[in-house]
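Table S2 (continued). Query chain:
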Amino acid sequence: MTEQALKIRLGQRLSVGFDGPVIPEEYRQLIREYKIGNAILFRRNVESYEQLKHLCADLHSLILQETGLPPFIMIDEECGSVSRLAHIAAPTPCAMAIGATDDAENAYRIGKIVGDELRAVGINFNLAPVLDCFTNPDNTASGNRCFGREPDKVAQFGTRYIAGLRDAGIIACGKHFPGHGDTDVDSHLDLPIVNKTAEQVRAVELKPFAAAIRAGIGAIMSAHVVFPAMEPDRVPATVSRRVMTGLLRQELGFDGIIVSDGMEMNAVMQLFGMEEGTRRALDAGIDVALICHSAQQAASTSRYLAQAYQEGRLNEAEIEAHYRRIADHKARLMPLDAGQDQFGSPAQRQEARRIMAQSIQILHAPAGQPLPALNENTLYCGVKAQAASLANDDVPLDAAALCAAALGGVYGGLAPDQPADTAVVFLGRHADTPQAIDAAKRLAAQGAKVVAVSLYTPRCLDFLPDSVWKIAAWQYDPLAVDAVIDLLKR
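Corresponding output:
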């Protein structure tokens, strides 16, 4: 194989991110030199509809010219807490909120909204939906990104979300295979291990992925998680040939694109480093590895992969087979010809608000009583918004302050010391949530009527007494807070 042919084939195996709203010169040089075939975008790349559409067109033109194939332009638009477009497009309910509506057609509707918006700006590959089953309440990596706990429900809602994306012309990518839902370690930070039997994994974790494969999903993302029952060498699934090729390709019959989770994540980096981790991932069966943050790392990895091929540590026939699979899928990409009327339209926003409102649940009411009446003396306190995991964008927001302003009450901060007749306390998956829980307990012990609102999974509500009204609102963003305000007004 010639040096140029090798560069083009290895370049198609990488998707690389960059900083800023325009393509940096360093990134252009990376594409030209190493023929990188795909790009991944984050909120750091997004300023406005016009800017993003121009950026995607520029990426498409550059990569097509340099490689001969159009790029997969990827983004994590899961909805809710993991949304790179919510500040300029229609804010949408997270997967757990959609699941809470018990109407799988809501998953289709949100998938179609997201797909239409992505197509309108030129993005063709959505790194969503999450197909993990949220079976571990202490899971900080997946949490409200999951449709629920039960595998059949996750499969049902996931396949409908996938159908919405597909009908908009967007490739859906289910994640994180074989499952990240029963972990209590975030793979951004360390290496999770799931000590289940193979039979248990097949009965729970694999069900949604198998359903998605039957439904024709175009791509699946690997998990940086160890499943000893599936991989006795105890390496993460991303770099396991037994998992990526044996389980996903051969046993489950998946013939789409396999994408790695971010290769910078500590679960892989601390074991192998970027370059060797990526080589192992490709050798395991990954089609496209994600290098999300650094052109320099992408360049050094490209050189390493070429050297590995020369040394016989990457197989030429497999390199060609992966290239053909990628090229075949790119040949079927739909034209990205939707207009701005499909991006954050009033109808899309209204539908997202309706589904969000439908998702809000009063999980517990003392003695079945209605929510207490609120007045100008009602105290509003609790946590401010923070990223619940490293997959989230950190968007400043103070739900208590917004509610106090909207409903005419008193703002109390995180840990108020004043008594109150009624209080609304906001909780979440944050480091300071224990302080807010203590405040809610203290106010309830003083005789206040306390309404506790979880803006993440309902787990934090379990630590409060039964004298407290408990509301699940699923995500910490203006869409959910507005829905809570509407509920409290009733």
